[in-house]
Design brief:
alpha+beta, two-stranded antiparallel ribbon, single chain, extended, two-stranded antiparallel sheet
Length: 93
């Protein structure tokens, strides 16, 4: 945990890591669905979920390859895992 804290602090100081947070277990959450004009709210936990978001990070980079390199380093410090990289939509200025 100390090594991860150091990585996060250094990454934020360098300006490429903008935000990072872990998510609480799905037992504390809910899903809200709108279908046919009706809302359905389902409280967690979501045992049937095979893929669950455990946290997120917002990274600023010049290319996808640059993000991939940051993620590789993060996973080495974390000791393993899997990360999905998604680009955020930015409205034109």
């Amino acid at each position: 945990m100390a090594e991860m804290g150091k990585l996060i602090e250094e990454s934020m100081q360098q300006g490429w890591l903008l935000a990072t947070e872990g998510c609480m277990p799905s037992a504390t959450g809910a899903r809200v669905r709108l279908a046919d004009g009706k809302f359905l709210v389902t409280d967690g936990p979501f045992a049937e979920t095979k893929e669950l978001v455990g946290g997120f990070a917002i990274i600023q980079a010049n290319s996808k390859q640059q993000v991939v390199e940051h993620v590789k380093h993060f996973l080495q410090v974390a000791g393993g895992g899997e990360t999905e990289i998604r680009q955020l939509y930015e409205a034109p200025a």
